[in-house]
Amino acid sequence: MTKTVGHRQPGVPVLGLDVDRGKVTPGRWPYTLPAVQTIVEHGLELDPGVTILIGENGSGKSTIVEAIAAAWGRRVGVFRDDVALQIVTRPSAEDSDLNRSLRLRFTRGGGTAGFFLRAERLHSQAEALARSVKWQPRLGDTPLLRQSHGEGFLSVLTAMTHEVGLYVLDEPESALSFTSSLALLHILDALREAGSQVVLATHSPILAALPGARLLEVGEHGIRPIAYDDSGLVQGWRAFLEDPGIYLRHLRA
Fold first, then answer.
1. Which tens digits make up the pLDDT trace of 187-204?
2. How far apart are CA 191 and CA 180, in angstroms?
3. Cα–Cα distance measured from residue 96 to residue 243, given in angstroms and rounded to the nearest whole number
4. CB–CB of 148/123 below 8 Å?
5. What is the reported pLDDT for 3?
6. d(Cα 224, Cα 216) in Å, to the nearest integer?
7. What 3-state DSSP class applies to 91?
8. What confidence tier does 26 reach under pLDDT thresholds 50, 70, 90?
9. Which domains does the chain have, with CATH numbers?
10. Which residues in the chain belong to E strands, given as ranges?
11. Structure confidence by residue, pLDDT tens digits, 102-130
């Protein structure tokens, strides 16, 4: 069971997650995932700044962040008329139905801006942003679709810092080089300093290293807080970089 973190910034958008058990279908995916079962049984506290989910493929990281984004989109729809925001938080046909049972514990008076950014949908999201009176001035003079994938990604991320809210990112490193990943760390820190909240799923040891972030490891054990140096993500990368040959020898003729 995860523990409540310490002092919270005033007006942080979301305190944590709970699940309406009346909308849960036992034995059906995604409720068979240990990580989702952890949220069903115990809820999940979110850091007032940045919460980072790490874990293997299939562990449930993306399932959780997709559901958070969709639940936040419903919340935002009550307060704001932001068509672009509603489009990018809307669940896709591939997303699970976890968002229907997920409940966010909001802060009274907390920020109501936000965004859901996943690398594989940046171009489709760019079309919505291009039509937004609010977002277009923030994105600069070069249209997103004329930028490289990584450049466009960072442009959207930089534009996020204009309003306080909840920002959800799913594996953004897939669009970014090493240098751009370092640039993203600065953007995440700027979001946090501005009073926004971030939930991030990643396989990147660079992004997982953000100082002050709450690192949660997702796996067969469910969800547990973990120190950076103790995580399987970091230990695996370090072992590979120290001696790639151990992992690559089976490829040799």
1. 999 889 888 999 999 999
2. 16
3. 39
4. no
5. 38
6. 5
7. coil
8. confident
9. 14-251 (3.40.50)
10. 14-19, 44-45, 50-55, 102-106, 113-118, 165-170, 197-201, 214-219, 222-225
11. 999 988 777 777 778 776 666 566 666 66
